[in-house]
Amino acid sequence: MPVQFVKLFNPFLFLIIFIFPPACSAQVVINEYLPNPTDSSDWVELYNTTDQEVNLNGWVLDDETASNMLDINEATISAYGFKVFEVGSRLNKSTDTVFLINSDKQVIDEHGYFSNPGDDISLGRFPDGDAWGVCSEITPGLANQCVLPTPTNTPTPTPTEEPEPTQMPTPIPTATSIPTPTPTPTPTASQLGGQATPISIKTPTPTPTETEE
Fold first, then answer.
1. Global pTM?
2. Residue 79: helix, strand or coil by DSSP?
3. Mean pLDDT value across residues 21-42
4. CA distances (Å), origin 28, targets 47, 57, 134, 188, 194
5. CA nearest 110: which of 123, 127, 119?
6. Which residues of 17-30 are buried (b: 16+ CB within 10 A; e: fewer)?
7. Residue 103: pLDDT over 70
8. Averaged pLDDT, 125-132
9. Distance (Å, rounded) from C-alpha 102 to C-alpha 72?
10. Cα–Cα separations (whole angstroms), residue 189 to 154, 183, 200
């Protein structure tokens, strides 16, 4: 007998999901930070990419050192809102990574830099919550104005067509000319070393004619 859907329905579980919707902590991101200020503390800005307010109580901002950089207590971030936290001088000037950890001790966002961006130059997402770049001006708590790196196009190698083999023309056989035989002259007697034999010419004897009477 197949199990009916009614037996699988748990009204208590449905009530929990309805009253306590899943947390949207994954949609809160590190949006901008300033690692090398000249006249203030280092700071980190968060941005809420959702249309719901998020409670940040128990969250942590951290870097690559052993202890937490900042424990966040009793703070909320409004829908599509910004929240800025000063972190003293915890960010290194040359290389470091900023981590955002929620109350469940899960790292939900991070971003690092591997060289000194310069004095009073912040790193941020542009547009807010999107791709990382170098900000043209410092905007804590405001929409970012950042320049994104230009992607480097990798040239696609063009396949080289192999030349077709050149067919050599078949030579046409040339007719061989037959040499004309050179007539051999008949050797004379002198050439043969003998004397010439005279040829006798016989004179015909005239026939007598009859005398008419």
1. 0.61
2. coil
3. 82
4. 6, 13, 20, 131, 138
5. 123
6. eeeeeeeebebbbb
7. yes
8. 95
9. 10
10. 101, 19, 17
Total structural domains in the chain?
A: 1
- Comparing CA positions, the residue from 114, 131, 141, 122 lying closest to residue 46 is 141
Query: Would you say residue 94 lies in a domain?
Result: yes
Tokens of 129: 């919550």
Report the pLDDT value the prediction gives residue 98, as an integer from 0 to 100. 97
Q: What is the CATH number of the domain that holds 112?
A: 2.60.40.1260
Instruction: Give the number of residues written for the chain.
Output: 213
Task: Give the domain range for residue 97.
Answer: 27-147
Looking only at the bridges linking them, the beta strands covering 96-101 and 60-62 are antiparallel
> Is 128 inside any structural domain?
yes
| Token duo for residue 90 | 């915890």
Looking at 50-54, 81-85, 174-178, which range is the least confident one?
Answer: 174-178
Residue 160 lies in a domain: no
Whose CA is closest to 60, among 87, 80, 78? 87
**Residue 153 domain-assigned?**
no
How far is the C-alpha of 176 from the C-alpha of 161, rounded, in Å?
44
Closest to 151 measured CA to CA, from 131, 135, 137, 122: 131
Question: What residue ranges in the chain does DSSP mark as E strands?
Answer: 28-34, 43-48, 54-55, 60-62, 70-71, 76-77, 82-86, 96-101, 107-113, 123-126, 131-135, 146-147
pLDDT score at 180: 62
Whether pLDDT at 5 is above 50? no
